[in-house]
Amino acid sequence: MDGSTSKPKRRRGRKNKAAADNHSSPDAPAAATAADAVVSDSPAPAAAGRRGRKSRRLEAPADADASRAPSPPTKPVANGVDAAVAELGPAGWEEIGRVVPSMDAVVKVFCVHTEPNFSLPWQRKRQYSSSSSGFIIGGRRVLTNAHSVEHFTQVKLKKRGSDTKYLATVLAIGTECDIALLTVSDDEFWEGVSPVEFGSLPALQDAVTVVGYPIGGDTISVTSGVVSRIEVLSYVHGSTELLGLQIDAAINSGNSGGPAFNDRGICVGIAFQSLKHEDAENIGYVIPTPVIKHFIQDYEKSGAYTGFPIIGIEWQKMENPDLRKAMGMKPDQKGVRVRRVEPTAPESGCLQPSDIILSFDGIDIANDGTVPFRHGERIGFSYLVSQKYTGDKALIKVLRNSNIHEFKIKLATHKRLIAAHVKGRPPSYYIVAGFVFAAVSVPYLRSEYGKDYEYDAPVKLLVKHLHSMAQSPDEQLVVVSQVLVADINIGYEDIVNTQVLAVNGQPVKNLKDLVTTVENCKDEFLKFDLEYDQIVVLETKTAKAATKDILTTHCIPSAMSDDLKA
């Protein structure tokens, strides 16, 4: 990471009605709300230098047609349609009648969140409320953003023009693609509403209209713009890269989950994040229909969300002619070089470092890692992988030692040493003699060091986060999170977020492994080997006896999380 340049930030558009405030500990950092800007991993400084045109947002009253483009105020007529529309005649009314049903399918999402406290994992943070947007699709289902219902306790939906809130059930949450699927059991909710229809991927400069319930009012709001870019971009919430649309319509807090319509009233995407930078104006991002359809079809095929597969490699561009010649590539051959292969990835059985990937499923890969997309457009080859489903097979052509090989690989989701998200599960922890052991994840880093953890966290943790690879599917990075002060741990109070390498000579592979070793220890002493040659030594019987008193003092219900008790 280069901290010398100003890096653009993206934020998600959920509107918080109350801040998530943690009163449990004065030392705990404040939780980052969804309205806060989240630093993006996307290398898109070029986008930050562009100044988009000023977008226009129309606040529509309940009895007006909110799908029309903004226009000067006109004198209303008796039936509630303004004079300008009345002058269009029957042809104009027919056009509006076709768009209005799509507008009526947009709903307001009310969610109560109760987030886990990763710094104090035996308790949760104070609950808070937020509102966002969603829309009705076929099959009595509703789509919204995953971050709009993250760590939900209760979700309610309200239709346009209605005063009733209906309890909703969350069917699936796709963290990587930032999409959630909901339903409502009350039949009354579905009466008189036509589901939204999905269209194809729009072209550049196509008009788009973002509809939702953003901050600044309670009624439905419309913002219009055009598609300004189509590329693989960073999804802030999911910490992944998928196809996305960049538009110049403003996406504000509360717009999250709202549909983006084309000029025919057909949905072309879901609003989900915006770019926050001092040199950028009105840059919003939309989840396109290929990603949405992948999520829906994945749920329909397996009954649950299984994720977007990836190729578990790090790769290098082959644009330098001397590099291509040294790797044995012919003048007409193009591809990318494999730098490292994830040990837990299915590809580890066939791909090797310094292999040249020439094609994926018969589509040639260029030296810069792109593939043909549409007329006059190219896109990163990871787009081809993301179009597959978990468990699908793909044919990869590889150049190795000047010989061409073909491998049929099984695609799977990414297993990171430091997980990007915990998928709604409560954090795991274990306490002995006041030492709090935890597994590091991105939510843990965010809880400890704030939303700018990529800059504020210790370098030793960031290096493991960005570059270390898990050697086995169940491997975790286990640390001493903190030391709850007691007589038995005098002199160890300053140990914070330090990795545990071994217990009594036994390497620590994950938190469950550590718990098993400590609980079954028959030795006189417990010896913890920490990073940088630090050690912690405790008398075994005294340490286990002191644990109960420490838990009582700090009002901690259990020495370990429920998932470690099994």
Short description:
It contains 12 helices and 32 strands.
**Helix residue percentage:** 10-25%
Mean pLDDT: 83
Given as residue ranges, the uncertain stretches (5+ residues, pLDDT < 50) are 1-9, 17-86, 92-100
Q: Strand pairing plus helix content: what structural class?
A: alpha+beta
> DSSP strand (E) fraction?
25-35%
Give an overview of the whole structure.
- The chain is an alpha+beta fold and 566 residues long.
- The strands form five sheets. Strands 2, 5, 6, 7, 8, 9, 10 and 11 form an eight-stranded antiparallel sheet that branches. Strands 26, 27, 28, 29, 30, 31 and 32 form a seven-stranded antiparallel sheet that branches.
- The chain starts with 8 loop residues before the first strand and ends with a helix.
- The model is unreliable at 1-9, 17-86 and 92-100 (pLDDT under 50).
Please specify the SSE layout and strand pairing.
Layout: E1 9-12, E2 15-16, E3 37-39, H1 45-48, E4 56-59, H2 83-86, H3 89-104, E5 106-113, E6 128-137, E7 141-144, E8 152-159, E9 165-167, E10 169-174, E11 179-183, E12 207-212, E13 221-235, E14 240-247, E15 259-261, E16 267-276, E17 284-288, H4 289-302, E18 313-316, H5 321-326, E19 336-341, E20 356-360, E21 363-364, E22 370-372, E23 378-380, H6 382-386, E24 393-400, E25 403-410, E26 429-432, E27 435-439, H7 442-449, H8 453-456, H9 459-467, E28 478-483, E29 498-503, E30 506-507, H10 511-519, E31 525-530, E32 535-539, H11 540-553, H12 562-565
Antiparallel strand pairs: 1-3, 1-16, 2-6, 4-13, 5-6, 5-8, 6-7, 7-11, 8-9, 10-11, 12-13, 12-15, 13-14, 14-17, 15-16, 16-17, 18-19, 19-20, 20-21, 20-24, 22-23, 24-25, 26-27, 27-28, 28-29, 29-30, 29-31, 31-32
